[in-house]
Fold:
Amino acid sequence: MAELIFFSGTMDCGKSTLALQMDYNHRARGRGGVRFSCNDRAGGSVISSRLGLQTDAVEVIDTTDFWDEVVRRRTTGLKVDYLICDEAQFYSPEQVEQLARVVDEMGVDVFAFGITSDFRTRLFPGSQRFVELADRVQVLQVEALCWCGRRATHNARTVDGIMVVEGEQVVVGDVAREAGQAEAIPEQVDVSHPAVGYETLCRRHYMRRVTAHGANLMASRDQLLPFDVDACLWHGVS
Structure:
């Protein structure tokens, strides 16, 4: 039986890597599939992994209709046994419903990969619909880490190094290199705006709004960190 499976996790937990691995495994067994992505960090019409893996994909836009995409390919003689849907948090609820229909009425497996909640800890509309409709929701086992060493559970956005909890849901951003984490959420780049970055944090540091940049500043100024050092596995920040 075909299934709609939503693989979810924070930034930097290997979603795109798994998407590419699953596509490889299914193709190796003679199955035909289509890869989709939306706003990938490497640009349009591509699925890319932080490990350096990359392959072409169909870019999902507002007018993309997954039912039509499958019908068009099948009527030209192409095999479509499964769909790989990366960056699925950016899909509209209507597009998620189209994917559910493809599974139920065409017998096509759909493997979707995406972030569940945004930098404000609010569900992406697409991710919410996946959770509501998916046959299975699987949380990826590869854990992203907070700068303190704990398991990262939240995605944080920074502006000029300062964590923010207000703003548009989708804004371009770079990897916060000093955090060793984060996943860009691309849109249109505007160099006139302040530097936007993304970082994964444990809940404790997300709630206290302590990013790696902030911890670095406090450490360099010999300020006491606003939390119990031992409880947060503090080893210093290089």
The two ends are 51 Å apart (CA to CA). Residues 10 and 129 are 17 Å apart (CA to CA).
